Task: inverse folding
């Protein structure tokens, strides 16, 4: 896999408050880097800098070797997905997904072919002519995901995209994300405060703590880092299980 994104020495502060401190990371094509961190640790600021919505104080960002800093957000070929699926309320599901192709002047037969195929893949075919307000939260997030995928972005930036969903729907969306990511070889940076979600979706793992990013060579290293709290949670459930079976 070739290197897609390289970030080196990235720092950002607001007033006297450092938010990101000397961040460095690399992301190869097709990888999903899951970044775990608590609220306020700098995750959203990192994504906004990559998307071009914030400017770093120091550091370099390159995408396929191109310096990203002078590139405006609309030319970075990235899509930033939030918790709230920002859909056009006056457009159908089909037209929401087709929007990116229409503004690129793709011809109608090709739009129909691509959108129909993607809706089927996202299990949205029967909802194609519905308006966003007629959908469940999980369905709206799938439409948002489809609208991002249809334009074939070089990088997906996901800011806790499933955080507002109930547990069952969240699990289903994680499974869908993994399946579609692998099929389309999507490169993503996925930030979350949920350690289980990070382990589920990430092909690589990192932890952001008070603006400092730690990357892990293995899943075992990630689990054993006390800041992720995974080892403590595993120990808790092991204790509960042993207590239940000995009762």
Result:
């Amino acid at each position: 896999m070739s290197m897609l994104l390289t970030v080196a020495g990235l720092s950002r502060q607001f007033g006297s408050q450092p938010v990101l401190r000397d961040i460095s990371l690399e992301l190869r094509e097709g990888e999903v880097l899951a970044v775990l961190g608590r609220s306020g640790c700098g995750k959203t600021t990192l994504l906004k800098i990559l998307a071009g919505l914030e400017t770093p104080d120091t550091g370099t960002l390159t995408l396929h070797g191109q310096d990203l800093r002078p590139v405006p957000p609309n030319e970075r070929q990235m899509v930033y997905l939030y918790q709230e699926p920002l859909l056009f309320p006056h457009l159908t599901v089909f037209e929401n997904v087709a929007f990116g192709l229409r503004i690129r002047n793709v011809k109608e037969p090709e739009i129909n072919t691509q959108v129909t195929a993607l809706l089927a893949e996202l299990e949205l075919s029967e909802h194609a002519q519905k308006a966003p307000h007629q959908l469940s939260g999980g369905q709206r997030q799938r439409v948002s995901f489809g609208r991002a995928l249809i334009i074939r972005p070089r990088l997906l930036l996901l800011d806790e995209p499933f955080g507002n969903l109930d547990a069952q729907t969240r699990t289903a969306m994680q499974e869908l994300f993994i399946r579609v990511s692998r099929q389309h070889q999507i490169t993503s940076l996925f930030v979350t405060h949920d350690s289980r979600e990070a382990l589920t979706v990430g092909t690589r793992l990192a932890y952001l703590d008070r603006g400092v990013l730690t990357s892990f060579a293995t899943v075992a290293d990630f689990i054993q880092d006390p800041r992720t709290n995974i080892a403590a949670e595993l120990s808790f459930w092991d204790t509960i299980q042993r207590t239940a079976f000995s009762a």
Remarks:
- The two ends are 52 Å apart (CA to CA).
- The mean pLDDT is 91.
- DSSP finds eight helices and ten strands in the chain.
